[in-house]
Design goal:
about 280 residues; Rossmann fold; six-stranded parallel beta sheet; three-stranded parallel beta sheet; 11 strands
Length: about 280
């Protein structure tokens, strides 16, 4: 993991759908701040993860671009061929929110499962029992962990987990609109909806407003990430903050000053519930 100590470039490689998301925007703020502090620059490159030539494309990029290290978010950080391509280039690797462990990477771990559990517990403690969950991409580790956390809290409270109230909403606004249409067709409506991220929550909020429903009067709504979008709608969305700006900043720091001991190769990140006006006690009657 020597890297190119003379290089002033740090690579951030991600999947194409991430670019333009609120998650990416917040993470990039931290990455840029970290680069500014260390007098380095950020090279951002997105890829189609279904491309069979993905590893070769990354190898070619690394061969022609002198990098000090590479930062990989989920899900690209879980692809063995990608990790091997970076290892073959002799570069240090920082993985953000991995679900697996390695002996060769530096990992920043975000406990999506615990965060989703805490948000679900918050809704339950408000008095909600019939809670819908809009799922993220079925093959995305963060989305799976958030679903697991939701199910953990519901099962612990002895509440039913209704598959009919768990549509897949992906991670983007357009998919959220489609999930909202499906979920709002059910009767009776759930008293609370927990969306897999803020973009999907905002899409749900827009759909609810369009058909004359009010939040939190008709049902509570919660999201995940605390993206700028969660603060730009009315009512502002209760969400789970992952501190992605700090995560990006720490990722650059990991590249510049990697730890010497194996025990320090993993850094946990804390989450925080941000309670806003989109959640309240269940409607009566």
């Amino acid at each position: 993991m020597a890297g190119n100590g003379s290089s002033h470039l740090i690579g951030f490689l991600c999947d194409t759908p991430m670019v333009g998301s609120g998650y990416f925007s917040m993470l990039q703020i931290g990455l840029i701040a970290g680069c500014h502090k260390s007098n380095t620059a950020l090279v951002v490159k997105s890829f189609d993860l279904s491309d069979p030539g993905l590893a070769d494309r990354i190898s070619a990029l690394l061969a022609r671009t002198p990098l000090r290290g590479v930062i990989l978010p989920e899900p690209i950080c879980e692809i063995p061929a990608v990790l091997q391509a970076v290892a073959d280039a002799g570069l240090p690797v920082v993985r953000i929110a991995p679900r697996t462990t390695t002996s060769t990477t530096l990992d920043i771990c975000i406990d999506n499962r615990a965060a989703a559990y805490d948000m679900t517990r918050h809704l339950i403690e408000l008095g909600h029992q019939r809670i819908a969950f809009i799922k993220g991409p079925p093959d995305h580790a963060d989305a799976i962990a958030r679903l697991d956390g939701f199910c953990d809290a519901m099962s612990e409270a002895g509440l039913a987990i209704d598959e009919a109230l768990m549509p897949t909403g992906g991670f983007d606004y357009a998919q959220g609109l489609r999930a909202a249409e499906r979920l709002l067709a059910f009767a009776p409506l759930p008293t609370a909806v927990f969306a897999c991220n803020d973009e999907v929550a905002a899409a749900f909020l827009s759909t609810a407003h369009r058909i004359g429903l009010r939040i939190p009067d008709d049902f509570s709504l919660a999201g995940f990430d605390d993206s700028p979008l969660a603060r730009s709608v009315f009512p502002e969305i209760t969400t789970c903050r992952q501190k992605m700006e700090l995560t990006g900043y720490m990722a650059v720091d990991f590249i510049i000053d990697p730890p010497a001991s194996p025990e320090a190769r993993t850094r946990p990140m804390q989450h925080e519930l941000i309670i806003r006006r989109s959640t309240g006690k269940p409607r009566s009657g």
